[in-house]
Amino acid sequence: MQETFKRMSESGTIRREDLYFIWEQKDFSAILPYKEFIFNILIYLDILAEQRRYDTITGSRLPVENFFVPCMVIERNTTSFMDKECTPERAICLAFLFKGTIIPPALPNRLISACLSMWTLKQYEERTLLFSGFIGLSFDKSHDIVVCVEGNKILLYIVHKTSSGLIVPDIATGVKECLVITMERISDFYQSTIHAKRSQQSPFHIEYSCSQMQCFISETEAVQTSEWMCDKHKLTHNAGNWLVWNQDKKKEECEQNCPGLSDDALSQIPSDIELLRFSTNCVSNQMHELVSYLEMSKKWDSITHNYPNDIEVAKYLVLSKWKEIKVQSNFKALAEALTKMDISTHFLCQVRRERRAETDLPLEFLDCIPTDEILDKLAPQIGQVYFQLGAVIGLSIGTLETIQSNNPRDLAAQNREVLFAWRKDKTVKPTIMVLIQALVNIGKGARCLQEVLKNVDLKTLKESEEVRGEGAISKEPKNTSEQKPHGKKKKSKKCSIA
Ligand SMILES: [Zn+2]
Ligand SMILES: [Zn+2]
């Protein structure tokens, strides 16, 4: 028994049997007959969260052995993640400030459990970033999320791999909305238990941090003032600074007060996915001029010769080559080329935009890892996009070229290898939703995958899903495809699949 408690406070996990064992004591005799039901209620209330595991070969979900119990974790965060990774150069921050001097202690723990069910727990310095009042998660290959509690504040950080100036606003806005909805849902529950009517006012308000992530300004004030100087650092911020948290996802062009890429962002070398977003936005007949300013004309000729029918691949490849061989291959060089072409440098802002994928597929499928069968059937359908797909899912050009030469003139086999390589990588949980987002990112769209899923035996997926516990209580209404998210009590669809 002591072992169990020790493990809970150290690793924050418990096994189902262990909890049943605890309940076998006299004091819990009222609970024991309903142990499975009570256990599932604890999951439903975000007091326990599943630690999901997948079969790396078939992608099917394995029975859940361990459950996270954030409320039992007493260890504090002693890793250097906040000092080394979550720095003002690479991260942005906002605070949810609660009225009153402290936050009800159960709320952060339930919020942490909810985060665990949405995103992948991050590993850092060989430890998982789950501590008392602190959690670190991987959103995708470029973005990490940190949620932590400090006094009457819950702080949210979005950390980018290279520069805070390159954080995709659609992602920051989505994560913020998601946490707001989750916290309102949790607070609503507490209010309902004390029979209080849901007050019109939210129990917290939002504050944005200064660029040093230490001073804060309330959201209401921030939208009213055009300029704000923070107390401690005397740094001036303008309204454009908060756009990252409030991206209008439908709007494609920059907002009026868009400050463009920051100096720090301009000095960065674009990642593959950023280059891909840039190349997708380049108009084909402008490429000739662009490559001449980048001194890549000869390479462009040979690449277009090799890919005569696929200008999209050629556009991306020539920019990848440019990044590989030129010394100063940063965003600034691209900005200068654009200026010479008389194109606004706000064109570069598009590398930070991502269209969030929308889909009618039921939620329970979105969270599954695609099986071999699904990937096999999808591979021949996606066509000549494997360079782009490879870039989006984080494979290097070198790897992609090897795959290509291993499978000459066999597009389906090339795509298949890319898809399987993606599923093997566990930085981000390789779910069907992530795959849908990747297909949208490369401009292919998700219809091909939806078609495949129609003809695939979804019972297999569902069966692995059912392993999560007999009689598990679904947090979502059945038939999600027909149900529009209404009210704020349920997690919105966007939220749980973000
Ligand atoms: Zn400051
Ligand atoms: Zn802009």
TrEMBL record:
Keyword Hydrolase: yes
Composition bias type Basic and acidic residues, residue spans: 465-485
GO MF, any single term: phosphoribosylaminoimidazolecarboxamide formyltransferase activity
Keywords assigned: Hydrolase, Transferase
Entry superkingdom: Eukaryota
Any GO BP: signal transduction
Every Death domain range: 371-444
Pfam families xrefs: Death
Region Disordered, residue ranges: 465-498
EC numbers, comma separated: 2.1.2.3, 3.5.4.10
Record field: compositional bias (Basic residues): 486-498
Entry protein name: PurH
Organism: Mytilus edulis (Blue mussel)
Lineage of producing organism: Eukaryota, Metazoa, Spiralia, Lophotrochozoa, Mollusca
